[in-house]
Specification:
heterodimer, A: mainly alpha, two-stranded antiparallel sheet, two-stranded antiparallel ribbon, 4 strands, globular, B: mainly alpha
Chain lengths: ~300, ~325
C-alpha cells in the first residue's frame, strides 16, 4: 500500500458513484421521499418532525419529516451533475485559452486580463450579486446561467495555471533537444508538451471538482441556489421556492436549525465534507501516482 | 518595477469598479406577461443603452446633490453607515488575515523541520488534511461543539451568535483564519523544499552558519517572494468567506448588509420592479475592492522589499 491515499479515495468515490446510480433502489433509501406528519412512539406519545436520529431515520428527518439519509442519497446525482457541468464548461473555455495563450501574445493578454479582473471579485460576492439581475432571476434557464457564471468565475485562474505549467515545461532541457532533433511545432506540442501537461491537468480538474462543490455549499448558506420556482401564496404574491434536491438547498434554514435540530445542517455538511475530502485526497493520490510513474518527484535532501 | 505594477493594479481596480457600477446600475424594469386573472406567466426584460446611461447620470447627480450616499433612518448618513459596518467587518478580517499569514508561515516552517522526525504526523499531513476538508464543516462543527460542551458542563458559557460580543469577534477571527493559515503553511512548506540543494545554502553551510540561521536568514527570505504572491488568493478567499461567517454568527458587518441590499427577493408581486439598494451597494463594492487592491499593493511592496531583483529562472 504505497499510495494509500489513492486507494482509499478511489474507494470513497466508487461508493459515491454507487449511491448516485443505485441509491434510489437501495432498501433503506426512501426514493419517494415520503413526508411524515407525526410518529406515535411505543409509550403512546407523539413525535412531530423534525425527528432526531431514531429507528427508520438514521440521520434524523427534516422539517417535513423526510428521512435525511434518503434526501442526501437522492440529491447526490443532482449535486454532482451541477458540479460536473460547471467544470466541463470551465475547462472547455480554459484549455483552448491557455494553449492559445502559449502561442499567441494577444490571447495571453486576454487571459491575464480575465484573471486579473476576476481576482478583484470575491466569488460569493459576485455570484450573489449577479443572480439577482432580473435578466437572470426570471430566466427560464436560470440554472444554466448560474452554472455559466460559476464556470466563468475561475476560468481565468485555471487557464493561467495551465499556461504557467506549459511555460515551465518550455524551460526544461529536453524541449531544446526536441527542437534540435527537428520537431515540428505540432509534434513538439503532441509529444513533448502534452505528456507533461495532461497529468497536471487531470489533478487540477479533480481539485477543482472539490472547489466547485465547496462554493455551491457556501452559496447554499447565503440562499443562492442553482434553480428555483415561483409558487403563488395566499395573498396573491409569488413565493420563490426551491424544489431541487441538491445538497446545498438543505442549508436554507441553517441559522435556526443549528440551535435545536443540529442533525439537519450537520448531516449535510458532513456529506459535503466527505465528498470534497475524497476529491482532494484522490487528487493528492494521483499526483503521487504520476510522480512515481514519471519519476518527477524530488528527493528530500 | 514596483511603481509600475502598482499603477497597473490601480488601473485594474478602477476598471473593476466601473464594471461593477454598470452592473449595479443596469436598468431593472421588467415587463410581466400575465395570463387569466393576472396570473404570472413569465417576465421579460428589455435592455436599452439609453436607460442604462440615464441610470448613470441619475446616480452621479444624486451623489452630487446629497454630497454622499444619502441618509438612512437611524440618524446616520448612509456613508457613515456603510463605513461603520465596513470597519466592523475589518475588525475581524484584518486580524484573521494577519493571523493566518504569520501562523501559516510558522506552521510551514514547523512542518518542514519536523518532516523527518518523530511526530511528523503533526507536520505536513495535518496541513494537507485541514486544506482538504471545507472550513465550513469546521466552522459548523466548532459551533456545535461549543454549544454541546456548555450543555455537558465542560465549557463555560460562550456566546457564539451576536454582533457585539467579544467572544463572537474572537471566534469569527478564528473561523476566518483557518483556511489562510493552512494554505500559507502548505505554500511555505513547498517553497522551502524547493530551495533545498541550492548553491547558496551549501555556501552558507560551508562557512559554518548554523542551520537555524540558514533557514531564517537565507532560505525564508527567498521563500517570501513566492509566499507573498499568494496573498491575493487568501484575501479573496477570506472576503468571500466573510459572507458565510457573518451570516452564520449573525455578525452585522459589511458583508451581511451588502447581502441584504442585493439579496434576491423571497416574494414578488406581478408588476413589481426589482430595485436594489444601489447606493449602499456601490459603497460596499468600492470598499471591498479597495481591500483587495490594498492587499495586492502590499504584496507588491513586500516582494520589492524582500528581493529587490526578482531572481531570473
Amino acid at each position: 500500500m504505497k499510495n494509500w491515499k489513492l486507494w482509499i479515495s478511489s474507494l470513497f468515490l466508487l461508493i459515491l458513484l454507487f449511491f448516485v446510480f443505485a441509491g434510489p433502489s437501495l432498501p433503506f433509501v426512501d426514493s419517494d421521499l415520503k413526508e411524515t406528519g407525526v410518529i406515535k412512539t411505543e409509550k403512546g406519545s407523539f413525535l412531530l418532525p423534525p425527528f432526531a436520529p431514531r429507528e427508520g431515520y438514521p440521520l434524523g428527518s427534516n422539517h417535513k419529516g423526510v428521512d435525511i439519509l434518503s434526501l442526501i442519497i437522492m440529491g447526490a446525482k443532482e449535486t454532482l451533475t451541477i458540479v460536473v457541468l460547471v467544470i466541463v464548461i470551465r475547462y472547455v473555455l480554459a484549455i483552448p485559452l491557455a494553449i492559445g495563450g502559449f502561442y499567441s501574445k494577444l490571447l495571453e493578454k486576454i487571459l491575464q486580463g480575465w484573471q486579473q479582473l476576476f481576482s478583484f471579485m470575491p466569488p460569493i460576492f459576485f455570484v450573489t450579486f449577479f443572480v439577482t439581475l432580473p435578466l437572470i432571476f426570471f430566466s427560464k434557464d436560470r440554472g444554466l446561467w448560474v452554472i455559466l457564471i460559476l464556470a466563468v468565475l475561475e476560468t481565468g485562474r485555471v487557464a493561467e495555471i495551465i499556461l504557467q505549467n506549459m511555460k515551465e515545461t518550455k524551460k526544461r532541457p529536453y524541449i531544446e533537444a526536441g527542437i534540435v532533433a527537428g520537431g515540428t511545432p505540432f509534434r513538439m506540442f503532441k509529444n513533448y508538451y502534452m505528456p507533461v501537461v495532461i497529468p497536471h491537468l487531470i489533478i487540477l480538474i479533480i481539485n477543482d471538482l472539490g472547489r466547485v462543490l465547496f462554493l455551491l455549499a457556501q452559496l447554499g448558506i447565503v440562499h443562492v441556489y442553482v434553480t428555483h420556482k415561483f409558487i403563488t401564496n395566499e395573498w396573491g404574491a409569488y413565493e420563490v421556492v426551491n424544489t431541487s434536491l441538491a445538497w446545498p438547498t438543505m442549508f436554507s434554514t441553517i441559522t435556526a436549525d443549528i440551535f435545536t435540530y443540529q442533525w439537519i445542517p450537520f448531516s449535510v455538511i458532513a456529506a459535503i465534507a466527505v465528498t470534497i475530502y475524497s476529491f482532494n485526497m484522490f487528487a493528492d493520490g494521483l499526483q503521487k501516482f504520476f510522480e512515481l510513474k514519471y519519476r518527477t518527484s524530488r528527493a528530500d535532501l | 518595477m514596483v511603481l509600475r505594477s502598482i499603477f497597473q493594479q490601480t488601473l485594474l481596480w478602477l476598471i473593476t469598479i466601473i464594471l461593477f457600477l454598470s452592473l449595479l446600475l443596469l436598468p431593472r424594469s421588467t415587463t410581466y406577461q400575465t395570463g387569466a386573472g393576472g396570473m404570472y406567466v413569465s417576465a421579460s426584460y428589455n435592455y436599452s443603452v439609453d436607460a442604462h446611461l440615464k441610470q448613470f447620470k441619475d446616480f452621479f447627480q444624486y451623489i452630487k446633490d446629497k454630497k454622499g450616499l444619502g441618509t438612512v433612518n437611524n440618524g446616520y448618513s448612509l456613508t457613515e453607515n456603510v463605513w461603520r459596518t465596513f470597519q466592523k467587518s475589518m475588525l475581524i478580517t484584518i486580524p484573521a488575515l494577519l493571523l493566518g499569514f504569520f501562523l501559516g508561515v510558522a506552521k510551514g516552517i514547523f512542518d518542514y523541520r519536523i518532516r523527518n522526525r518523530r511526530g511528523r504526523l503533526f507536520g505536513v499531513s495535518t496541513t494537507r488534511f485541514f486544506l482538504s476538508i471545507p472550513d465550513l464543516f469546521l466552522i459548523i462543527a466548532l459551533q456545535l461543539l461549543i454549544m454541546e460542551g456548555f450543555e455537558a458542563g465542560l465549557l463555560p458559557h460562550i456566546i457564539v451568535y451576536g454582533s457585539d460580543q467579544p467572544s463572537v469577534v474572537l471566534l469569527d477571527i478564528i473561523f476566518l483564519s483557518i483556511y489562510p493559515l493552512f494554505y500559507i503553511a502548505n505554500i511555505t512548506f513547498f517553497s522551502i523544499r524547493d530551495e533545498q540543494g541550492m548553491d547558496y545554502i551549501r555556501t552558507a553551510f560551508s562557512k559554518g552558519t548554523s542551520s537555524f540561521k540558514v533557514l531564517y536568514r537565507h532560505v525564508l527570505k527567498n521563500c517570501f517572494v513566492k509566499i507573498l504572491s499568494h496573498t491575493n488568493t487568501i484575501t479573496l478567499y477570506t472576503l468571500s468567506n466573510l459572507f458565510i461567517v457573518e451570516f452564520l454568527t449573525n455578525y452585522r458587518g459589511a458583508a451581511f448588509f451588502f447581502y441584504e441590499t442585493v439579496m434576491s427577493p423571497k416574494y414578488f408581486m406581478v408588476g413589481q420592479d426589482f430595485t436594489i439598494g444601489v447606493y449602499p451597494a456601490a459603497g460596499y463594492v468600492i470598499l471591498f475592492t479597495a481591500v483587495i487592491f490594498l492587499a495586492k499593493v502590499l504584496s507588491v511592496i513586500g516582494r520589492g522589499l524582500v528581493s529587490p531583483l526578482e531572481r531570473n529562472e
